[in-house]
Amino acid sequence: MSNGKLGIAVIGAGRIGTLRARLAAKHPSVGFLAISDLDPARARALAEQTGADVYSGDNLEIIARPEITAVFVSTPEGEHAAAVCKALELGKPVLVEKPIALSLSDADEILAALKATGGELRVGYSRRYKECFLRAKEQMLHGRLGKVVGGLARVYNSRAQAFAILKRDPHATPVLDVLTYYVDLMCWFLDGNPPVEVVARGQSGIFKQAGYAADDVTWAIVTFADGAVINFGVSYALPAKYPTLGQSDRVELLGIEGTMIIDDDHMDHMLYSDKGIPHAYVPDHQVNMAFLGSNTAGDWAVGDFWGPLGNETRAWLDHLVTGNPTVHTTPVQARINLETTIAIERAVATGKPVRLPLET
Amino acid sequence: MSNGKLGIAVIGAGRIGTLRARLAAKHPSVGFLAISDLDPARARALAEQTGADVYSGDNLEIIARPEITAVFVSTPEGEHAAAVCKALELGKPVLVEKPIALSLSDADEILAALKATGGELRVGYSRRYKECFLRAKEQMLHGRLGKVVGGLARVYNSRAQAFAILKRDPHATPVLDVLTYYVDLMCWFLDGNPPVEVVARGQSGIFKQAGYAADDVTWAIVTFADGAVINFGVSYALPAKYPTLGQSDRVELLGIEGTMIIDDDHMDHMLYSDKGIPHAYVPDHQVNMAFLGSNTAGDWAVGDFWGPLGNETRAWLDHLVTGNPTVHTTPVQARINLETTIAIERAVATGKPVRLPLET
Amino acid sequence: MSNGKLGIAVIGAGRIGTLRARLAAKHPSVGFLAISDLDPARARALAEQTGADVYSGDNLEIIARPEITAVFVSTPEGEHAAAVCKALELGKPVLVEKPIALSLSDADEILAALKATGGELRVGYSRRYKECFLRAKEQMLHGRLGKVVGGLARVYNSRAQAFAILKRDPHATPVLDVLTYYVDLMCWFLDGNPPVEVVARGQSGIFKQAGYAADDVTWAIVTFADGAVINFGVSYALPAKYPTLGQSDRVELLGIEGTMIIDDDHMDHMLYSDKGIPHAYVPDHQVNMAFLGSNTAGDWAVGDFWGPLGNETRAWLDHLVTGNPTVHTTPVQARINLETTIAIERAVATGKPVRLPLET
Amino acid sequence: MSNGKLGIAVIGAGRIGTLRARLAAKHPSVGFLAISDLDPARARALAEQTGADVYSGDNLEIIARPEITAVFVSTPEGEHAAAVCKALELGKPVLVEKPIALSLSDADEILAALKATGGELRVGYSRRYKECFLRAKEQMLHGRLGKVVGGLARVYNSRAQAFAILKRDPHATPVLDVLTYYVDLMCWFLDGNPPVEVVARGQSGIFKQAGYAADDVTWAIVTFADGAVINFGVSYALPAKYPTLGQSDRVELLGIEGTMIIDDDHMDHMLYSDKGIPHAYVPDHQVNMAFLGSNTAGDWAVGDFWGPLGNETRAWLDHLVTGNPTVHTTPVQARINLETTIAIERAVATGKPVRLPLET
């Protein structure tokens, strides 16, 4: 650990918390690192892995430590509120994982705490920090497409990863947990033009038979305030050995004066190996054919971590030091993302169009 | 013209009729070729171009000629019925262009004539005869995906071509005239599993300002009888100089035991030329950057025509000689395609889900 | 068999002969079909499969039959001369498989017979009839690139197929048997501008250990008469389960006024199936991940054969009926292809630049 | 500027120096920034743009300032030695732009200074820090391909950028200035297995007519010590309006046990805009069609810089603080890159194979 000025707490020692901690430990401005997890053994293991200064099974105690100047909340999706609110109350900036919560009431509790404390809170939608989407946003800022009339964002992944996610939290459906990234991206690209209506349909089978409520595939058409129609889709039910190692996605924007096509399926970055290629997310899973670069968070390579989550973590830590502005998702944006994905699931369940914002 | 055994009439000397006639003239089994068009000058010009034996401004007279053994009906979409019914009554096999009609009542008139005459009628959905989709269908016949749970088919084109289509027939909207191809493909792939419900949304602007009722972009989610959800989309409003020279499309099928991705955007077959590349469909239009192979019907090259419409025409003429089975769209399938696209437009117009089959 | 006017003999009942025969049997102008193979049992089996009228173990007898009006010579690469010369002497047009021969002396024997008889002979380089390359040639005919300064053509395939080829004929190395297609394509694109020099290098290992003289990978830089430099490469040593089912290739042309990129790797037409996908060429070989459309010759689908070899066969049979010109490789072009590939192997073997034409 | 611990000098205020300075200014650990350029006005302008603490027209004076702890040498390719040697003598770590020099004698002068001082020097081959190549290297470290038998690396760019480079330095040919990146990558991937021989050919025309010695296209086959044959190619002569905004490249590795294909042409990340898209490198140049992500160094987006040069700069600055190892090209590796590219140009010029290492 360098003797920098930041004291960072990582709350939650799961998969994403592990990445946050490892990245923080490597950041040149981090001088103190603390890990907590309700399971003290996991906190300890991650602390040892990262050379953290302290660890604990008590999240709130860690957040309250005086050395800590900022907090990553990487607990399971449904348990964000307590840690986030505690940090905000203590005036410590927070980056919380997406989605901000699994219910609007939890989200509103966090937004209320934010308002009460005047604190600083951002939500970790790492897709924004994928290079291709940063470039896309820059083009939108320059207005290169003119007015947008429509678009498409669809994401596929293998069921190997879906089952790993659902095992961790059966409420983290592909819509709430994954499609939320693309809702976030599109709302970001169409900034100032919120979603107003959703129609959606899904088909169940594979996950249902395994005892989960998640659909195998979901399609939604979301109309935005100015009439633009964006098509969203997610299927995390592809065969377990399908070559993607995470999200294979496409994002397309159709404007009056331009068209942007971001093919992020990674089909053209291919590795075939007779030796097998391990999956970063799913233990004991490997494939012979892989789309390199499809890991959702990014990849460890030559001793460092590269990709969206690395960029995102870095940008936030840098921001804490330099004060430079960043494009991390704001809590208000994150609440719209949550509301829209809840509307998609509701539209599938009822078969009816759903207006936004949702009536409470 | 070789002294073969087929006597072919091409009714309608527009763009597609021209291709049908030129292809028939080159077919080794065609021994007599006749052209008709309500505009006798166009009929004459095409007859001269193809070396046809006769031409006329009277469609029914040409169909009735004794030398004629089979008929292509390539009139505008709304004027198919008279020529088709005449040929069926005379016991002459017919290939009619898609869509079979622009209204269900016209379609039903044709279906009634077919039933009454016991004739032979197929509908020209040339996408089925694109090599990539023939291969895809073959895989479906082998059941390589297992049960299909969802899919996607979306098609983009430049507004240069859309305006050329709409100028010819303002009722030939991208949904009725183009998306119908992909409805046809998906119904073919999912054979025996018909569409039962549609939700859809669209956005208007570019075409509306030019005085047409067509939407700039339309998205639809179609649920099939077994619950599979297929997402359809069309935008023919891309900038006039966008590199596609016709349909840039993607077709994706998600099954329990397999996944098939057909990226038919043609982005990887590229020509840049400082000299300009003419557009096959739109006169006086050229681009510097083109996706080769994106012409919808196919391409003339080294003196012959290659691609879907060439394959389709050839297969039908061969079939007339050899009696071998073909996969041309049947009238019943074509009526389902029409019904589904009408349902998509109705779902956009009303904002409500639409059940299939439509109530009459 | 339709009662058409062509009487076709297929000499050689191997893999390509089988395709030629099956395609001829379906052609609407073929009225008589004969099969021969030095192994009469193979000839008989193919005759039964195709409904051929006669079969024989005596190639020359079949060629001489009076019903026969044209001949496919599909014998092994090294045994073309006898059958070709016999047919030419009898004034029957011939399509012989590529390469025209495996030695220049054999090629020259065929060319001498051609000159003596004034007959009609073409060589089956089916890549010319792949749609993407037909379109590319058309662009070249229009001069869309201006003067060409350089280019690239490289082709990869799995060793599963390479071993099947080498087992059939150990002299049919990837350079002589496969790279010849791309030499042919480039010489066709650069028509009138012959190759004049070759430098080349290769690496051996996999095939050598299995007892074959073939290299695992070969790269060659060929300079053409006007100075254009074209890079050729072939590796047929990719892992057996690599997803290609035949040739995965890229062809790129760089001109003063334009650039053409033909990515024919087929990576974007993908099928993953847990059920396994059989390989068209290699018996008892199947993969879970396949690039659809990568079969070299083309694919059987919905009862017909689609792709380069189908187009090529069709174009030749049509030509026999209609007399229309075709773009099948001429014997003089085929000899240049052979000479250039021999030069590539010689350049690898000697490490020295090799001038063309070769000194005899 | 944050009050961090690094004092950074950027020597040379050209295009790359500007990026280095802007990135250093944003780095959270940089507390002092100095700019120098032989043209004091340029140094001043960049200092103003970045908020640098000091600037000067005297490179050596800036390097010697006590606040400076590390130095970027971003002078023109031919003028690296003086600044590098000065910094090394003062014990200050240096990152110098690639190629290390334009002649082996200049390179050797730098290597001698390094040896004499025991200093720390790395060379800025930013392609190593492109995410796709970092991932590729990681796969190589795991041995996923087994022994490599061959490979391909080719890079294309528009002549718009080539002329901008040649105008700056007519000796910075595409081989010495660009292909060196891919020589570096391949030598890195094949670590421990040095190049031993080169054959190469080129064609001139466009640049020659404009008065430069550079070839329009160059192909080289490089044999490595264990016999692996790697094909290298570069053409920076594509039409000025071709959609790439920098390097469009492909890197392919063929191993006994695996295959890796990195298609980095960026064809699938496309923007078409009627409004025009400015080129980052070439002033007053814009295109309507662009491959997003093809800028060689990377892209400014949402206020930060993303891509290879950002990653590379960051990694080096981080390393200065944390001491963590990095994969920046070492001077010995850089000399091999230079030697190999010189050998390629010599092989083109003489038409003869060239052995490596070069005889001096």
Topology (SSEs and partners):
Four copies of one chain form a homotetramer.
Chain A: E1 6-11, H1 15-26, E2 30-36, H2 40-50, E3 54-56, H3 59-64, E4 70-73, H4 81-89, E5 94-97, H5 104-117, E6 121-124, H6 131-141, E7 148-158, H7 159-168, H8 174-189, E8 195-203, H9 206-209, E9 217-224, E10 229-238, E11 248-255, E12 258-264, E13 269-278, E14 286-291, E15 299-301, E16 304-306, H10 308-322, H11 331-350, E17 354-355
Parallel strand pairs in A: 1-2, 1-4, 2-3, 4-5, 5-6, 7-10
Antiparallel strand pairs in A: 7-11, 8-9, 8-17, 9-10, 11-12, 13-14, 15-16
Tell me briefly what this model is.
Chain A contains 11 helices and 17 strands. With 360 residues, chain A is of the alpha/beta class. Chains A and D meet through helix 6, strand 12, strand 13, strand 15 and helix 10 of A and helix 6, strand 12, strand 13, strand 15 and helix 10 of D.
Description:
Four copies of one chain form a homotetramer. Chain A has 360 residues and is an alpha/beta fold. The first copy, chain A, has eleven helices and 17 strands. In chain A, the strands form four sheets. In chain A, strands 12-11-7-10-9-8-17 form a seven-stranded mixed β-sheet. A six-stranded parallel β-sheet of chain A has the order 3-2-1-4-5-6, sandwiched between helices. In chain A, strand 1, helix 1 (15-26) and strand 2 (30-36) form a beta-alpha-beta unit. In chain A, helix 1 (15-26) runs parallel beside helix 2, helix 5 runs antiparallel to helix 11 (331-350) and helix 8 (174-189) crosses helix 11 (331-350). The first copy, chain A, is globular. Chains in contact: A-B, A-C, A-D, B-C, B-D, C-D.
